[in-house]
Design goal:
five-stranded mixed β-sheet, 10 helices, 12 strands, globular
C-alpha cells in the first residue's frame, strides 16, 4: 500500500514523528504474527514476555536503510543560496570544502541512526508457507500471534515507560530508493536537523523492494536514543502477551511439553499446523488445547 504518500498528504502542515506514529496506529491490522525458530532461547524469551530486536546491519536485505545522498548536488545547492557573490576562487573553494565537511558530518550522523536502530519484524498472516520455511526453521519452529485489540492491557503497564507499540509501522514496497539529499541540504543550511529530517530518516527504514512484499511486514523500530543494553546483535525488550501460538508442521517434539505448560499458564490458545487438504497451497490449524 502507498501509505507513505497518504501520510504526507494528510499531514502536510504537521510532518512529525508523532503524527507518523498516530497515522501508523490508525491503519494497524487487528493481529500481527512473529515467526521464530524454537530453541532454549526462544522459550526463555516467551517465558519472560519479551521479543528480540535486531541491529539494522544484520538484516538480510543489503538495500535496507541505504538511501541515496548526492553530496556534490547538496553543496552546489547550498552555495546557490548565498545572496552575495563569492569573492575569488580561494573563498569559493574554502566555502565549498566547509560545506562538504558539514554535509558529510550530517550524512554520517543520519547513517549512524540507521546503523544503530534496532528492528523487530512481524507479518499480518500466520499462513505464509515461505515465512514458515525462512524464519521458523523449515516449519520446525513457531508463529506467535499478538492481538492488537488487547494492546491497551500492555500499554497501561507502560504508562511511564517507552511503549514499543508506538514505534510499530508498516513496510512499503517500492522499486526506488529514498533520496535524502534534500533532507541533508536543509539540515546543512540550518546547521541542525529538523522534525521533517527525523521523519524522513524513519521512513527510509520502512521501504523495501517489492520482491519482499510476500512478507506483508510491520516492524518495530527503536532509535538508539531509546533502547538500552544493546549487545553486538541487538536487544530484548518487554512486549505484550501473545494471544496464540502456532506450531510448525515439523515442530520439534522435545519442546512440546514446555510450550504446552507455557500456554496453560498464560491461558492462550495453542494450534498445530497441518497441510490443508484442498487445491489451495496453505496450512490449516488444529486447536490442541
Amino acid at each position: 500500500m502507498d501509505w507513505i504518500a497518504d501520510y504526507y498528504k494528510k499531514n502536510d502542515d504537521d510532518i512529525s514523528v508523532r503524527t507518523l506514529m498516530d497515522y501508523a496506529k490508525s491503519i494497524r491490522p487487528v493481529k500481527i504474527y512473529k515467526y521464530q525458530p524454537i530453541n532454549d532461547t526462544t522459550c526463555k524469551t516467551l517465558l519472560e514476555q519479551q521479543i528480540w530486536l535486531s541491529k539494522r546491519c544484520l538484516l538480510n536485505d543489503p538495500f535496507e536503510s541505504n538511501p541515496l545522498n548526492h553530496e556534490e548536488k547538496n553543496v552546489h545547492n547550498i552555495l546557490s543560496k548565498y545572496t552575495e557573490p563569492l569573492e575569488g576562487a580561494i573563498k569559493s573553494e574554502f566555502i565549498m570544502e566547509e560545506h562538504r565537511m558539514l554535509d558529510r558530518i550530517i550524512a554520517n550522523k543520519i547513517e549512524g541512526s540507521y546503523i544503530h536502530a534496532v528492528i523487530g519484524s512481524f507479518s499480518t498472516t500466520n499462513n505464509n508457507y515461505v515465512l514458515w520455511g525462512n524464519y521458523a526453521e523449515k516449519n520446525s519452529g513457531i508463529c506467535v500471534e499478538y492481538d492488537l485489540k488487547t494492546s491497551y492491557l500492555f500499554e497501561e503497564k507502560k504508562e511511564n515507560e517507552i511503549n514499543p507499540l508506538n514505534y510499530l509501522f508498516p513496510v512499503e514496497y517500492k522499486t526506488t530508493r529514498s533520496d535524502i539529499s534534500d533532507m541533508i541540504e536543509a539540515a546543512s543550511l540550518n546547521h541542525s536537523g529538523s522534525e521533517k529530517t527525523r521523519v524522513a530518516e524513519l521512513i527510509s527504514l520502512l521501504e523495501k523492494h517489492p520482491d519482499w512484499a510476500y512478507e506483508d511486514e510491520w516492524r518495530i523500530i527503536l532509535p538508539p536514543s531509546i533502547h538500552k543494553e544493546l549487545d553486538k546483535n541487538g536487544v530484548k525488550i518487554s512486549f505484550m502477551k501473545p494471544s496464540a501460538i502456532y506450531l510448525g508442521l515439523n515442530f520439534k517434539e522435545e519442546y512440546l511439553q514446555q510450550i504446552k505448560d507455557y500456554v496453560e499458564r498464560q491461558k492462550i490458545h495453542l494450534y498445530q499446523s497441518e497441510i490443508n487438504n484442498s487445491k489451495d497451497i496453505s496450512f490449516k490449524f488444529k486447536k490442541i488445547n
